[in-house]
């Protein structure tokens, strides 16, 4: 430990010099720069606080739709009337309509731009995918007309259709027009998509999960005009709100579920089914509306005629439905903020026992938990459907996977995977079905935010629930990958690499880090709820989210958005070195004794040890008259003069300064290194000599003057034996080997194996062995 000539000098060197070094040595970057230049300029539509402005507007699209399901040909025919209301200040000479089924057209952009690589061995399925599909997919638009039947000029550009209006649509005006169409439904297990059918060979029945089934209005907004980016597969949907009335004609023995509320229950349900539905309203557990026995009986029946089911939904951005004679149907009503919500599930017998036990209970739990963390659920129903689609969301209805084995058994992974996907897809009712972000542009705004609340909901379902995403430790492997394999979160949906990690896992983790480490739960929860409240039933952008989170918490988060969302930097903080100091008391009886002990504790060098043996006598030993004062002088011996100087020194100090000389405070200078580039708060665990521990949370602003290296002085009353960064794995630190000082070995194990294997015969030997074997087989047996 260094010995200082005075207390003042000691403290000046200890405190002033390292702080000056850390704060005045710039790393050449500014990770704390504000985001103003990267965010759109605030205006009267969207304010700098992140809230909708006084002149905020959004368009509206109302639909009346009639579709018919052809169960023999697996096809749909439909007609619709769209009423489009222009609430913008702009005059619109044409409208853009989305034709998302054209993703399956043989000439789609997606098919043309699929990338692949060949190897020496290629599976049949991969070749099938590379070859031209035989499936005749895509919308067949049969007519686009005005309400009086006059044809409207329209142009189809892949997944977009422009409809030219006879007269330009001015502000506050509405226009209605009609579209007739048909298309073939894809076999979802062969041609993967967000909807489709599944065929069950044993009972020769079909199960349909139907979405993107009608031409849908694109969004026209204040920040980008028409959202007419083509649908390529990853970037999902941007849609305006409106009211829907949809009539679905299906085989008479089918059970149909859909977005919205059933309008003609008396015409399509039996009296028993209606009574069961009424019973389910106040039930404490799910009530079977259609039992498994009844569904099995329907599976073996012969379809006779059709039924038309009519559903209505208010203020939704989309509509989806399902249909099958295989469906078991259960329901349970809950109250959410005083409003009734019917939670329901539709599933074939192949989903039991998992689905009957868990699905509707999970739906109810999800509605309650999401409502707590965001806004109260406003819709009258919430439905989970089991079929071929692994997971996809629509207003009030979602498609979910998770099927047990044929014998009814299932693994823990299958159980929790099913519960998680139901939570996730039902949760999408909040993001983006209510908080209506642009999925076509920013997948993370719905998937990332939703995955974060999914994590909170999973943890409230079961203690220590095995969540796949949310905990910082679970994103480390991704953030540790080569940067060429990553893209920033703020990347368009179609250009994202490692889609699940980037659009789901990383933003969800980022929000968890904000909640637990940067902001704290109270500030975060209030700000997150404020965002949901501000943008419910509206179209938020990333800037609206970033600004609201800061505005409602008074926490400057520009550094966080910049690092986590705009870069591929990773968190890797290191303690490179630790220096230990304490105060020089200036008391010679204390300090000289300390130095004497230090000297005595110094080991003899190798040369000193050998000299003691080899050199029997020195010159001075032989000629003692060569000795003088310094041969007997002990510089550490305390003299009266030393004591007099110490007494004189202390008389000039205040009582507080005199006390400071006598205290036993320990000073530790930590050299901290930001290896990964992502500035983060420093979570420091101190372990004391007596075994006790302390956590110090040092705000991220520690790095503001130098983003790469800083020194930090920590003072303690007890001696510290070790320092550890991020002991509770809360910052997604990608390298824990440099987090401890003194360094701690990283525990691992290796596997032993037997190295000597029988040598394989060469081709000549192999041929000889084969010949010998053949001769032995040809030799007749002795009888």
Automatic annotation (TrEMBL):
The keyword Nucleus does not apply. GO terms for biological process: peptide catabolic process. Residues 358-564 form the Peptidase M1 membrane alanine aminopeptidase domain. SUPFAM superfamilies: Metalloproteases ('zincins'), catalytic domain. Keywords: Aminopeptidase, Hydrolase, Protease, Signal. It comes from the Bacteria. GO terms for molecular function: metalloaminopeptidase activity; peptide binding; zinc ion binding. Residues 1-22 form the signal peptide. Residues 763-783 are annotated as: Disordered. The keyword Signal applies. This is Aminopeptidase. One of its GO terms (cellular component) is membrane. PANTHER family: PROTEASE M1 ZINC METALLOPROTEASE (PTHR11533), PUROMYCIN-SENSITIVE AMINOPEPTIDASE-RELATED (PTHR11533:SF174). Coiled coil: none annotated.
């Amino acid at each position: 430990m260094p010995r200082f000539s005075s207390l003042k000098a000691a403290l000046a060197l200890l405190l002033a010099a390292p702080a000056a070094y850390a704060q005045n040595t710039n790393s050449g970057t500014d990770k704390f720069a504000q985001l103003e230049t990267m965010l759109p300029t605030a205006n009267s539509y969207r304010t700098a606080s992140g809230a909708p402005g006084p002149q905020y507007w959004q368009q509206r699209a109302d639909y009346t739709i009639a579709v018919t399901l052809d169960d023999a040909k697996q096809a749909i025919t439909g007609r619709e009337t769209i009423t489009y209301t222009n609430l913008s200040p702009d005059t619109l000479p044409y409208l853009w309509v989305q034709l998302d089924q054209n993703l399956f057209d043989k000439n789609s952009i997606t098919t043309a731009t699929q990338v692949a690589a060949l190897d020496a061995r290629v599976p049949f399925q991969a070749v099938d995918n590379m070859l031209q599909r035989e499936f005749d997919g895509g919308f067949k638009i049969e007519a686009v007309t005005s309400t009086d039947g006059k044809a409207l000029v329209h142009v189809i550009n892949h997944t977009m259709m422009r409809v030219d209006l006879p007269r330009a649509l001015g502000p506050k005006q509405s226009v209605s027009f009609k579209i007739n169409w048909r298309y073939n439904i894809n076999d979802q297990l062969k041609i993967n998509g967000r909807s489709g059918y599944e065929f069950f060979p044993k009972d020769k029945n079909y199960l349909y999960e139907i979405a993107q089934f009608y031409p849908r209005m694109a969004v026209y907004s204040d920040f980008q005009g028409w959202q007419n980016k083509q649908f390529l597969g990853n970037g999902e949907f941007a849609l305006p709100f409106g009211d829907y009335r949809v009539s679905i004609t299906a085989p008479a023995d089918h059970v149909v579920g859909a977005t919205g509320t059933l309008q003609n229950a008396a015409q399509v349900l039996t009296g028993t089914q209606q009574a069961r539905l009424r019973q389910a309203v106040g039930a404490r557990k799910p009530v079977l509306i259609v039992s498994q026995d009844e569904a099995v009986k329907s599976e073996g029946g012969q379809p006779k005629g059709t039924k038309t089911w009519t559903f209505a939904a208010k203020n939704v951005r989309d509509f989806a439905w399902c249909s099958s004679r295989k469906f078991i149907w259960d329901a349970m009503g809950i109250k959410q903020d005083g409003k009734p919500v019917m939670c329901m599930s539709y599933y074939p017998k192949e989903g039991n026992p998992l689905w009957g036990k868990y699905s509707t209970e999970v739906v109810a739990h999800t509605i309650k938990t999401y409502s707590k963390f965001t806004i109260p659920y406003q819709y009258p129903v919430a439905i989970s459907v089991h079929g071929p689609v692994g997971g996809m969301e629509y207003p009030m209805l979602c498609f979910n996977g998770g099927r047990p084995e044929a014998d009814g058994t299932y693994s823990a992974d299958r159980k929790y995977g099913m519960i998680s996907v139901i939570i996730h897809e039902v949760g999408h009712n909040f993001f983006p079905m209510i908080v209506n972000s642009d999925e076509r542009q920013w997948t993370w705004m719905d998937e990332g935010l939703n995955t974060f609340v999914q994590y909170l909901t999973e943890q409230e379902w079961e203690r220590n629930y095995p969540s796949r995403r949310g905990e910082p430790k679970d994103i480390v492997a991704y953030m540790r990958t080569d940067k060429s394999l990553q893209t920033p979160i703020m990347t368009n949906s179609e250009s994202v690499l490692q889609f699940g990690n980037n659009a789901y896992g990383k933003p969800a983790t980022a929000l968890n880090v904000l909640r637990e480490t940067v902001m704290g739960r109270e500030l975060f929860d209030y700000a997150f709820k404020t965002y949901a409240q501000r943008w419910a039933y509206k179209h938020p952008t990333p800037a609206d989210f970033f600004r609201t989170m800061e505005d409602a918490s008074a926490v400057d988060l520009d550094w966080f958005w910049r690092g986590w969302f705009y870069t591929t930097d990773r968190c890797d903080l290191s303690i490179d070195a630790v220096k230990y100091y304490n105060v020089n008391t200036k008391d010679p009886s204390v300090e000289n004794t300390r130095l004497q002990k230090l000297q005595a504790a110094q080991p003899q060098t190798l040369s000193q040890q050998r000299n003691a043996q080899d050199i029997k006598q020195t010159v001075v030993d032989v000629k003692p008259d060569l000795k003088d004062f310094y041969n007997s002088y002990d510089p550490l011996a305390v003299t009266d003069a030393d004591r007099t100087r110490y007494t004189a020194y202390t008389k000039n100090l205040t009582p507080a300064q005199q006390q400071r000389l006598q205290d036993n405070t320990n000073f530790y200078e930590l050299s901290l290194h930001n290896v990964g580039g992502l500035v983060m708060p420093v979570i420091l665990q101190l372990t004391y000599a007596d075994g006790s521990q302390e956590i110090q949370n040092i705000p991220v602003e520690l790095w503001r003057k130098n983003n790469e290296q800083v020194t930090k002085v920590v003072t303690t009353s007890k001696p510290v034996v070790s320092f550890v960064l991020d002991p509770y794995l809360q910052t997604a630190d990608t390298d824990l080997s440099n987090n401890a000082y003194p360094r701690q070995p990283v525990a691992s194990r290796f596997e032993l194996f037997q190295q000597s294997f029988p040598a394989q015969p060469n081709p000549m030997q192999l041929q000889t062995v084969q010949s010998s074997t053949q001769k032995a087989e040809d030799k007749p047996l002795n009888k």
